[in-house]
Amino acid sequence: MKIAVKLAAGVLVAGAAAFLPASPAQAAPGNCTAGFVTPSVVTSWAICTSGSGQYVAVAKCTDGITYTGPSWKSVGQGYSYASCPSGTRITAAGYFAG
Known about the structure:
Layout: E1 4-8, E2 17-19, E3 29-36, E4 43-51, E5 54-61, E6 66-68, E7 73-74, E8 80-83, E9 90-97
Antiparallel strand pairs: 1-2, 1-9, 3-4, 4-8, 5-6, 5-7, 5-9
């Protein structure tokens, strides 16, 4: 299974990506972006608009934990959202894709 991880500090999505080996038949979404819901400081969004496969938003929070959205989305299903718990704020927004 191929898993791509991208996290970004602030609103821009730039940062580290990590890839695990994939089988040749594995689908992967493309043209993925992520950011914060404005003016929220607790919710992130992610969307992938090409390819196939699924993705889910992630939010790294001030408690040091990275939270994922409640469900994975398939390409073409719109935005995925993830939120930090009460009393914390987002320090990075991103997505998992696979």
